What we know:
The protein is of the alpha+beta class. It has helices at residues 3-10, 15-18, 41-45, 75-87, 94-105; strands at 24-35, 48-58, 111-120, 130-137. The protein has one domain: GTP Cyclohydrolase I, domain 2 (2-Layer Sandwich).
Amino acid sequence: MDENWQLADALGLDRVQSLETWTYSVFVRNLMLEASIGIYDYEKAKKQRVRINADLTVVPSIVPKADSIDDVLNYESIIEGIQAIVAEGHIELVETLADRIASLCLTDPRVESVRVGVEKLDVYPQAESVGVQIEHRRRHAPPGKR
Length: 146
């Protein structure tokens, strides 16, 4: 056994914790909702179908040691948060909706970055969807400034 691992074992650490960076992804794929979204009067009069995708990169504060939801980011809270944002009322732009979802995801300090896609599904009969994809990354202090 390597000497470094013996020290880690003596301190009660496992190998993954001693790595410099360990991440995992949490994602929501093809969440279909009815949303009041759009800039035109006819869009304000009737909800329309949207498809939402979110990909989060998570840097855990601990390595899960037990099979426990308390040790990981629960995607259920992401879905419930997105549903709450959509339920708040009319949003003019898909960019605004995507930004609000990204901001929601970054409220958890373990989330390093998030990519959000919002698509309107019934705008053009010739296209399956139209929309945007945005990415937000957590800002970090420059080295030596933490």
